[in-house]
Amino acid sequence: MKTYFIKTFGCQMNVSDSERIDGFLENNKYKPTSKIEEADLVVFNTCGVRQMAENRAYGQIHNLRKNNPNIKIVLTGCLSNRKDVRRRLQNKVDLFCEIKNFPSEITKLLQTYQLQTSFNNALDQYLKIKPNYTNHYSANIPIMTGCNNFCAYCVVPYARGRETSRSNKEIIAEIKSLIKDGYKSVTLLGQNVNSYNDGLIDFPKLLKKINAIPGKFWINFVSSHPKDMSSELIETIAQCKKVCELVHLPIQAGSDVVLEKMNRKYTAGHYLGLVKKIKSAFKKYKPESLFALTSDIIVGFPGETKRQFLESARLMEKVGYDMVYFGQFSPRPGTAAWNMKDNVSKIEKARREKYLNAILERTTLANNKKYLRKTLEVLIEKEKDGFYFGKTRTLKNVKFPAVKKNLVGKIIKAKIIQANIWNIEGEILP
Q1: Where would I find the H helices in 320-424?
Q2: Which option is the CATH number for 282-370: 3.30.750.200, 3.40.462.20, 3.40.50.700, 1.25.40.10?
Q3: Distances in Å between the alpha carbon of 196 and those of 19, 160, 206?
Q4: Where are the strands (E) in 109-200, listed by range?
Q5: How far apart are CA 21 and CA 1, in angstroms?
Q6: One fold for both 133-244 and 282-370?
Q7: Domain limits of the chain?
Q8: How far apart (Å, rounded) are the C-alpha atoms in residues 324 and 331?
Q9: Which pLDDT does position 279 carry in this prediction?
Q10: Using CA of residue 101, residue 102, residue 106, residue 107, what is the dihedral sign?
Q11: Largest pairwise CA distance in the chain
Q12: Which of 426, 429, 364 is CA-nearest to residue 399?
């Protein structure tokens, strides 16, 4: 039996894509192996958001054939369509393919099996693959792919194409099957989930449909765009009991000048207005629940002055985030920002990130202290060295002694007894 190895770089969407690749290969008589150097087929599911991830992919692909000259190498994900990447790796990669074309393209390459199902189009074909989920309690569900926004720094519209939404019936069927199998949490994925529309329903209506599925489970989603965060969506998020009390809303920059250069199509004032609406909605519909807000910020975008950077810092202070994922600007080929002068030094980018991280540490600790003496639901994800580790509905990391056995994958009640910067600690209740 032929063997395969999948190497995944990047975000939750890439993890979800790899689960589908894994399911497709295993279903077609390929066997997974834990050793990349021994595989007959290696699939690199790449991320082009940052240069660091791109360089890691180059490094691993470069020497792969030295010990195994017959290995087949496939490159998919964000880097697969880049002309410069194809030129650089043309003698080292057997197949470059978009993720949505994976089943048909890999079939042509290997010529060892045929698809048994009839599909309407390439994306439909890809999304109908039954994934091998990473675990038995939490699943990533792609609901749409691609992006129409063309933010100046982002490769997604070029790598994945324009927005395409998956049929709501397929999404509902997949989630119903998961809940029937005992899954406790589903995360809806898309580059821009809140612009979901399959021609029949939009994102708020999809959330209501999923919320109505019988069973006890949590609903999360990423990632949202502020320009598409409607009042209807905010009300829906707060009203649906199974939707977790967490909103990830990327701001990217606190300066209106920088936001305009990024082509983000909103202002800092509009964003702060959304934050106010979100907080008010949760107070109205879930007054007893704690709420978390997370975001993304890019530091050192071309032309960002120190004054403009400090506007990001002030916005962070106003919002009081629970988590922010920082990224130092990295020019990506093909984007509008590629042609802008990258005139903020690496040293200055690092300094700015450190400055913002210090603010985040203060706001995160202050928010975590609100959990003290609270009794919360926790989904246990793993056990290690006598402790359980899990997450709350607001995705706070929780640690507590493993005084009971066989709780991984279950939702339990815990009392929080300590608040740290990056996690909280508790004890399991009887």
Answers
A1: 346-369
A2: 3.30.750.200
A3: 22, 15, 9
A4: 138-142, 144-145, 164-165, 185-189
A5: 17
A6: yes
A7: 3-110, 133-244, 282-370, 375-428
A8: 21
A9: 96
A10: negative
A11: 63
A12: 426
**Identity of the amino acid at 16:** S
pLDDT (0 to 100) of residue 98: 87
- pTM for this entry: 0.90
d(CA 195, CA 224): 8
Query: Residue 279 and residue 156: Cα distance in Å, rounded?
Result: 30
- Contact assessment for residue 144 and residue 126, using Cβ atoms and an 8 Å cutoff: no
Q: Which two tokens stand for residue 144?
A: 């749409």
The closest of 268, 80, 100, 234 to 158, measured between CA atoms, is 80
Residues 6+ apart with CB under 8 A from 306: none
| 9 contacts 50 by C-beta, under 8 angstroms | no
Alpha helices in 68-167, H assignment, sequence order: 83-89, 102-110, 122-127, 156-160
List of the chain residues with pLDDT < 50: 112-121
In which residue are the tokens 């939707």 written? Answer: 243
- Give the position of tokens 């880097």: 79
Q: Residue 124 has what pLDDT?
A: 55
The topology (CATH level 3) of 133-244 is Transcription Regulator spoIIAA (3.30.750)
Question: Are residues 414 and 400 in contact, defined by beta-carbon separation less than 8 angstroms?
Answer: yes
In angstroms, the CA 371 to CA 417 distance is: 8
Beta carbons within 8 Å of 404's beta carbon, 6+ residues apart: 428
What per-residue confidence (pLDDT) applies to 70? 86
Any alpha helices (H) in 128-267, and if so which ranges?
156-160, 168-180, 203-211, 231-239, 256-262
CA nearest to 218, candidates 372, 391, 16, 425: 391
Instruction: Give per-residue pLDDT as tens, 368-417.
Output: 999 999 999 999 999 999 999 999 999 999 999 999 999 999 999 999 99
Q: How far is CA 287 from CA 120, 278, 301, 353, 428, in A?
A: 46, 13, 38, 34, 24
Q: What is the pLDDT of residue 65?
A: 86
CA dihedral angle for residue 200, residue 205, residue 207, residue 212, rounded to 10 degrees: -100
CA dist., res. 242 & res. 145, Å (int): 24
Say whether domain 375-428 belongs to CATH 2.60.40.10: no
Q: What is the structure's pLDDT at 207?
A: 98
How distant is the alpha carbon of residue 1 from its chain centre?
33
Domain 3-110 in this protein, CATH class = alpha beta
